[in-house]
Input
Amino acid sequence: MLIGGEILYQALYRKYRPKTFEDLAGQQYVITTLKNALKAKKISHAYLFSGPRGVGKTTVAKILAKAINCENLENGEPCNECSNCLEVLNKKCVDIVEIDAASNNGVDEIRELKNKINLVPSSLKYKCYIIDEVHMLSIGAFNALLKTLEEPPEHVVFILATTEIHKVPETVLSRCQCYNFTKISVEDTVNRLKKVIQQEKINVDEFILDEIAKASDGSLRDALGLLDQLSSFNKEKITIDLFEKIRGVLNTDKIKDFLDTFYNNEREKILQLIQTFDKTGIDFVKIIDQIIQYLRDELIDFYLNHKQLDYPDEKIIRSIQQFDAIQNKIKHSNNTKIMFEIEILNLMKEKSKIISREIKYDSKIENKDVLENQTDNKKSEFIEKPIENIIDDNKIDVKINNIFARAKKEKLLYIKNNIEKFNDFIFDTEVGYIICMILDGNLRVASDEGLIISYEYASMVEKALEKQKLIEEQFSKILDIDINVVFITDEQWEKLKEDFIFKKKNKIKYQYIENIENNEQKIPDQKLDNNDKIISNEEQKEDAYKTAIDLFGKNVVEME
Ligand SMILES: [Zn+2]
Output
């Protein structure tokens, strides 16, 4: 347990602090350069390590202090066994002076440093001054340091470290050999964590280690700290729930699930997810942080590592801006959950509006076609036989065939022109999500009894199928039409459209299938026979052409 005090407990991060360069996680470039210099016995009098916190700057400084003093340096590595190595490892070693500029402005330390700097080391080869967060030294301390950096005695080595190199004066930088430390990769962090859990016998799944690594954002110290905290709660088994609770973050799967739901415009599910987020007790401002970070990582992977994106990059960029705006809005609210819910629903509603605007625009173009083909539609209405009982049949092919066989432009237009009526029910607590499903679909072809709706994703088709009855009810309630709906994907729709045009061009008629419960019924694909009693061949040819134009627009039909 974390009882405090290192006598009882030693932090994992200290306990597993690497004693050799080889043992270090990440920083390959820095390590290789330093080791090569040590092997060639090229020792600088001033080093400057810069980079984010927790990535190993102080650790490398300590290994370096050993290495330059080691009696049995091997391949650039300190032996950790000779008297000098042991002396450095001993906390009371007077020749290694650590100054933390962050905890005071360093004036006294630097003054003392100046007074003692000319004294030869008491036991080591080199006196070593490690100054952490050197950018925080006061101007006076800096000036004093500069003087000594200009002409340091032979037996002195400075190792300066900073997280903010831009705050270090140029005059200091120019006197140092500079090394830039980078964030430690998730992979390197996980590998280090694995070693630690093995030795400490901590039971934790690898995917949680992954989450710990990601949450630590390249800082191994933070990663080990987090592991420490988690294992102090329950060493027997670290669960993802515990991780989320302690860390105050959601795991990546949950974030991904949330975004999928958001992009698929599934309002019912998004509200459920927000509910589960709320149960974790994590602040929604923090959750948005994570969502933005996740999307940003996706983009970086896409642009730099050419990884595939789940959604178009423009969409992701726009979402980042939207989530950022939401975060700003809810930050000062006392009810972040409710505000988050409302903002997310609003965004989804906007999306639906865009869709219905597109439909409206679409119908304007098609209006012309209808006027041109009015007579034609009357004719086809006259030919067709009544449809019976499509509802309970699952044979979608037959349903689609029948909708095509009796397709009516006016019907589709009526629905499209009135689709905005559904908007009024978006926030209805009972049917709001059904309305959203309708608005999210693309209205394709309609007959008096049937309507084909297509969706971008197969998952949305599945959802719609589950709620088919409820969807049809809304058409009846809001638009006052009794219609059977068939759901397909946009991709399937493209194929159907091609097929339709092909048939029309080759004079193959969609024949209405009356009894679709009869399994032996086939979808007729035969050429028109001469027995057709009502219209002549010529008329049919004309009819086919006009119907195609009517349904899909002139350009599509006349292609090829
Ligand atoms: Zn040694």
Remarks:
- The pocket of zinc ion is lined by residues 70-72, 78-79, 81-82, 84-85 (CB under 6 Å).
